[in-house]
Specification:
single chain, mainly alpha, 5 helices, about 0% strand, elongated
Amino acid sequence: MRRFLESLYLGAAWLAALCMVGVLAMVLISIISRQLGVHVPGTDSYAGYLMAGAGFLAMAHTLKRGEHIRVTLFISHLDGKARKALELWSLGVALLVSLLFAWFSIRLAWQSNEFHDISTGNDATPLWIPQISMALGSLVLSIALLDELVLELRGLRKTPDPASAEEASHDR
């Protein structure tokens, strides 16, 4: 199961990286086409869709690598049961919020497909297509948060030490 989850997070990260390459391609196409006096419709819209996809698809991998921003002001002063309780509460709330976001983003993509909703730009893209990356990314984030919650409950979760993380950021 662990191998599958790690593959899921890594696969989402690779899709995020491909989205970033797509953003670069859209920007380059836009620049080059302007220089050549040719209009390529939709490049701005597609760059925006791809940027949103990159952000959502990268969230789970970022969480699992301990790269999400954490407010450690309170938690760094806690030990034992108090720290574990705060970690569990934080992960529980984050999981609840991410599940709600995943539910509504999946529902949005589904409804956009059902109603044949298209973008208002001149590209007229069916909106369910770019919305899939938001739905998929938020779903994978929910899975990652559930994974973290289970690991925390079992006492197997590795949380970054706030002091070492701060020192590492100063070394960069």
